[in-house]
Design goal:
Helix 2 crosses helix 11. The chain contains 15 helices and no strands.
Length: 337
């Protein structure tokens, strides 16, 4: 959690009653009482919950009547329908985004990421999706930030990132000897998805768009691409014959949850907390995924999961720590001054 700075000398605005022309506490919403960093942290925690649902749906897709292309159409199409009036008002600002920055967002969270995450989830488990995809993002984000000239992680942050990597290795180690090509291929695909999401995380900082504009920049070209792939027969679709329950589930989880709510909240958190801190806090989702997969998908945690997920969580805690700010010592004043 992010601590807020308080001052004991400052009294609450309503200590002597609200001033003339200013609303009292009763007119304020609970969120307005939080600092911008606290609101960013709250938005990120809700996003983590939605990401857990995304990991579960990635695994559940293989047992549903929907195909990956169908889930992608819902994922990118629903936000466009819901936000169409707002996106139309922002069309000029979206079109003015630099191609390089737009490519980071479109590739990082668009069709390449979505298909990689869905395919990797079909080959592994919900625990793998929920651990590898968000778990490795802090490492990829740190690498991208260093490549852009930022200082390399040090101290407890570096130790935490290393521990996250060890946790991911622990997840896949049992499938190396003997070799399980299916699971290893799925894990490798999830690593690609994680790297793409890190690109998206950094790309959000490079565009001068509000969260709604960022969703439009992502969903419009992604929906066009997936629609073209379906129309040309490159990707098969079973949407016309899918079960209504499956369509409703993915519409809520992928379209409204991941596509709309998580997109708005994650973009908001990025602006309040920064890319590195958001990526690290977001890695807490593996715990939620493992716990939810037991009753929802009937997945029993393996020894590798029981070792790897706690290591990733411990790495998150270390990587999210910040050294205490030490006050600068005052210069000594000579006695004869």
């Amino acid at each position: 959690m992010v601590a807020t700075n308080t001052s004991t000398a400052a009294a609450p605005p309503d200590a002597a009653g609200p001033r003339a022309g200013q609303p009292g506490w009763r007119g304020l919403s609970p969120l307005s009482l939080l600092s911008p960093q606290a609101r960013g942290t709250l938005a990120l925690l809700v996003t983590v919950s939605i990401w857990a649902a995304f990991a579960l749906s990635a695994r559940a897709l293989s047992a549903s009547t929907l195909l990956p292309a169908d889930a992608a159409l819902l994922r990118f199409g629903v936000p466009l329908v819901v936000l169409f009036p707002a996106l139309w008002r922002r069309r000029r600002r979206i079109a003015a985004v630099r191609p390089g920055a737009a490519a980071k967002i479109i590739c990082g969270a668009g069709v390449p990421f979505f298909l990689a995450a869905m395919h990797g989830g079909a080959l592994t488990s919900a625990a793998f999706v929920g651990s590898i995809v968000p778990g490795m993002v802090p490492l990829f984000v740190s690498a991208l930030m260093v490549a852009r000239g930022h200082r390399a992680p040090r101290g407890t942050q570096a130790a935490g990132l290393a521990l996250i990597a060890v946790g991911v290795v622990a997840l896949v180690w049992r499938y190396v000897v003997p070799v399980d090509t299916g699971v290893l291929a799925g894990a490798g695909t999830l690593l690609v998805a994680s790297g793409l999401w890190a690109l998206y995380t950094v790309g959000l900082r490079d565009v001068d768009l509000d969260p709604v504009g960022s969703i439009g920049l992502l969903c419009l070209p992604s929906f066009a691409v997936i629609g073209l792939l379906v129309l040309t027969g490159v990707l098969p679709t079973g949407l016309a014959h899918a079960a209504g329950g499956d369509i409703a589930l993915f519409l809520v989880v992928q379209g409204l949850g991941v596509g709309l709510c998580a997109g708005l909240l994650y973009a908001y958190a990025i602006r309040r907390l920064g890319a590195e801190r958001s990526a690290v806090v977001g890695s807490l989702s593996p715990v939620a995924v493992v716990l939810l997969a037991i009753p929802l998908l009937d997945e029993s945690p393996t020894v590798a999961v029981l070792i790897g997920v706690p290591l990733i969580t411990a790495g998150v805690v270390l990587a999210n720590r910040r050294p205490p700010v030490r006050p600068h010592p005052r210069p000594e004043v000579p006695a004869d001054a």
